[in-house]
Amino acid sequence: MDRKKSFVLKGHICYSDEKKKLHIKPNSYAVCKDGVCQGVFEKIPQKFASFEVRDMGDVLVIPGLTDLHAHAPQYAFRGQGMDLELLEWLNTHTFPEEARYADLEYAQRAYGMYVEELKKSAVTRAVIFGTLHVEATEILMDLLEESGLETYAGKVNMDRNGGKNLEEASAQSSAAETRRWLQETEGKYRHTRPILTPRFIPACSDELMAELRTIQKEYGLPVQSHLSENPQEVAWVKELCPKAKSYSDAYFQAGLFGGTYPAVMAHCIWVDEEEIQLMKEQGVYVAHCPQSNANLSSGIAPVRKFLSAGVSIGLGSDMAAGSNTSILRAMADAVQCSKLRWRLVDSEAKPLTFPEVFYMGTLGGGSFFGNVGSFLPGYAFDALVLDDTSLPQPRKLEVSQRLERFIYLGDEQNIVCKYVNGVCIR
Ligand code: GUN
Ligand code: FE
């Protein structure tokens, strides 16, 4: 037994289960053995009696949060160009900025700042886009590995429509660079995993998608991409893929839409019922990014439909289309956006509840990593200890009230410590 990674944490413990039920356990004990949660107890069971007890006082203890979709190279222009829609924003701000990552000194500096912020944040796990540059992506992965966070990171593939400075010369050269990246990083990391990253259909030719499918089978890799974010983008995909029934079907026909290897698709706003069924069948994850969707006036995702259909769903910052990296903020934004959808788009779609968005930010997204995002027995011990006593409070609140309020009002300054696999990383 690793004694450093075996202990008992005492506090007001809050977590979701697989049915999205929120459990609130005041003054309870979460047991961590070798980095794995053994459950939450009102009294410490005899078999754990020898474990060190870390009594954290009057604090909230919640599972670490997962950012299921973020773009590391977009950190530098957060909060800029927010008056544009997707395609204009990509061409005006995003692609020119990402082209800078050919410069490794710049990559080191900018990625260093992003990873520093992520380490301080409430996020313990993240699924991250790099750029098309192999060396810069390796710098990002080195920094992520040092941070102690658990992540997937991807070298982006794009062989069309990136403009002259952000486009790979051919499907073959994009595939060759992807292979070089996978070979150079193979076996190098313990906490940082590669993920295939075709940017989106408009940036990837059919030949490139076929190459990536071959690489996926060779290496057994998951995929991250974007799906149905913006109406103009959806219309463009229709033109680019006349044989596909839908945007989802374009990925499906390429063999990169879940099934044997997991896939996470950001946004999924303009999907129809058939696509939702396909996502369910293929086990595709939705990364719901409400702040991004509002910033780029992309639309309001049908989250209630995903939940009802049993589609896997977590939350993403989509930084920098989401200007804020916080998944606490994403939980609050998800509630707000769902209310607008209910009021303006679909009166059948009940707004999201607090337990539902808490689930999405913890277990919903965490499950992309396996048993992650809960304090049920057998889950990775990823935990946040939160001191909310600095938030003004003229009367005593229940733990459940404190938790909901924290999601809206708290931030990284309230984090006392953050555990990943039972290791305190800040
Ligand atoms: N679709 C293709 N690339 C991007 C990106 O960088 N951000 C967002 N929000 N959508 C995209
Ligand atoms: Fe994105």
Task: Please give a structural write-up.
The mean pLDDT is 97. The two termini are 23 Å apart. Helix 2 (104-120) runs parallel beside helix 3. This protein has 426 residues and is an alpha/beta fold. The strands form 4 sheets. It has a 7-stranded mixed β-sheet with strand order 3-2-1-4-15-16-17. It is built from 13 helices and 17 strands. Bound molecules: guanine and fe (iii) ion. Fe (iii) ion binds at residues 69, 71, 226, 266, 318, 321. This is Amidohydrolase family protein. Keywords: Hydrolase, Metal-binding, Zinc. Its cofactor is Zn(2+). It comes from Blautia hansenii (Ruminococcus hansenii).
Secondary structure elements and their pairing?
Blueprint: E1 7-16, E2 22-33, E3 36-41, E4 52-63, E5 65-71, H1 86-99, H2 104-120, E6 123-129, H3 134-147, E7 150-154, E8 156-157, H4 171-185, E9 192-194, E10 197-198, H5 206-219, E11 223-227, H6 231-240, H7 247-253, E12 263-267, H8 273-282, E13 285-288, H9 290-295, H10 303-309, E14 313-315, H11 327-344, H12 354-366, E15 383-386, H13 399-409, E16 415-420, E17 423-424
Parallel strand pairs: 1-4, 5-6, 6-7, 7-9, 8-10, 11-12, 12-13, 13-14
Antiparallel strand pairs: 1-2, 2-3, 4-15, 15-16, 16-17
Helix pairs in contact: 2-3, 3-4, 4-5, 11-12
The structure holds guanine and fe (iii) ion.
